[in-house]
Amino acid sequence: MPKLGYLLPTRERVMEGHHETGALLALAEKAEGMGYDSIWVGDSLTARPRHEPLALLAAVAARTRKVELGTAVLLPALRNPVLLAHQAATLDRLSEGRLILGIGIAADTPAIRRDFEATGVPFDRRVGRMNDVMRLCRALWSGQPVDWDKLWTVKQGTVGPTPHRPGGPPIWYGGFLPEGRARTGRLYDGWFPSQPKPEEYAAHLADVRSAARAAGRDPAAITAAIYLILAIDDDPARAEARMNDYLVRYYGMPAAVTRNRERCFAGTEAAAAAWIESYADAGATHIMLRFAGDNERHLDIAARIRRALGW
């Protein structure tokens, strides 16, 4: 039975001038009470300003009891790995093992390149840096003294506490292109893209599992997830307009550009149910939903869809 997740509208709140966190925490509590399985927070610095994800998830951890807590997605290349290992381990302890680190390398846009420039990270080295950050985090999460002499120097270093789960929280990678699918299979615990169409998902997931098998890993142990954006309305034309307006405001580019690279649905509740179910039929076991505004109403609709699907 697929799990259903919900992305908190941190960027949207900042765009609207509402920097307070109370409404976001209330949405997290509401989602848990409605049976959602996970709560997610996005990551960006100056490109799309929003709440820092690990700090906000710590507050969510204190206000919830059962839901998993995830980043969708964190940019590890922008962070010092020793600090990240310490923060993530503490958050995993706060949540008693509910943390999932969704990670990625970010799209190639001028605004995101400025984030890398602002943090002193070469954009063209972000893939290798991300992989090294996560390798060092995992080493530190072991609780054993670590020696590391690459971009960062660690001498018999440890962090405490260690994560709640031995080895640390699961790491899901958002790579969609062939090299990203192969990278997931070789290195990470879950596949978490936002680009595949339903008819593509099963074949691309098979690539991930094939790469895992080739690396001597258990293909079945890799979680199959998907990140979807929805605008649901009884009037399909109104849903389309809502989605397009949302994407233009959020990304600052024509909606068609975003809709070509992100999986977006606009339409009726019945059609949304069929679309969501198509990903489950293709093999997705954790489906994360992001809503084009009207979060309270969309939470209710998606919960109703879930019940109708028998999840």
Let me know the CATH homologous superfamily. Luciferase-like domain
CATH names the topology as TIM Barrel
Radius of gyration: 19 Å
Please give the share of residues in helix. 40-55%
Helical run tally:
12
In terms of DSSP E residues, the strand content is 15-25%
Based on CA inertia axes, which overall geometry fits?
globular
Question: How do the SSEs run, as a string of H and E?
Answer: EHHEHEHEHHEEEHEHEHHEHEH
Strand order of the largest sheet: 1-2-3-4-7-8-9-11
CATH architecture classification: Alpha-Beta Barrel
The structural class is: alpha/beta
User: Could you give the count of β-strands?
Assistant: 11
Question: Residue ranges: pLDDT <50 for 5 or more in a row?
Answer: none
Describe this structure in words.
- The structure is a single chain.
- The protein is an alpha/beta fold.
- The mean pLDDT is about 95.
- The chain has a single domain (about 5-310), classed as TIM Barrel.
- Strand 5 and strand 6 (about 155) form a beta hairpin.
- The strands form two sheets. An eight-stranded parallel barrel has the order 1-2-3-4-7-8-9-11, surrounded by seven helices. A two-stranded antiparallel ribbon has the order 5-6.
- It contains twelve helices and eleven strands.
